[in-house]
Amino acid sequence: xxxxxxxxxxxxxxxxxxxxxxxxxxxxxxxxxxxxxxxxxxxxxxxxxxxxxxxxxxxxxxxxxxxxxxxxxxxxxxxxxxxxxxxxxxxxxxxxxxxxxxxxxxxxxxxxxxxxxxxxxxxxxxxxxxxxxxxxxxxxxx
Length: 142
Known about the structure:
CATH architecture: 3-Layer(aba) Sandwich
Distance between the termini: 38 Å
Number of domains: 1
CATH class: Alpha Beta
Strand order of the largest sheet: 1-2-8-5-4
CATH superfamily: P-loop containing nucleotide triphosphate hydrolases
Low-confidence stretches: none
Helix content: 10-25%
Structural class: mainly beta
Radius of gyration: 14 Å
Pfam family, one: Hpr_kinase_C
Shape: globular
Number of strands: 10
Strand content: over 45%
Domain HPr kinase/phosphorylase C-terminal: 8-88
Keywords: Kinase, Transferase
CATH topology: Rossmann fold
GO molecular function: ATP binding; phosphorelay sensor kinase activity
Protein name: HPr kinase/phosphorylase
């Protein structure tokens, strides 16, 4: 069996109990800041800024390139060391390039390396990191 080479994308990833959220967005949109907030709530860092993705049997796996493993940028503070997990199954994505305008948004999805994932748009408000963590823990109700 051939193992596919990982594809490195401009994104961050954190995980809670092995369930990862891929944080997408242009430079300066707050990917690392959101990751740091989720880490403060109990998530582990997978990767910051660049994330290696591979699809295996319909599952998307995220890991950090070796050169940046265990490091995260805190704007205005510097590069920080962080506890990491070597890899995580990506179960959702957040796209910070898009801002959510609806109170109860429809279900949205994106496809990465042939794997469909639920995707949330960015939300301005202090509850957003906690809502992402709860989504990782329990999913979204119908």
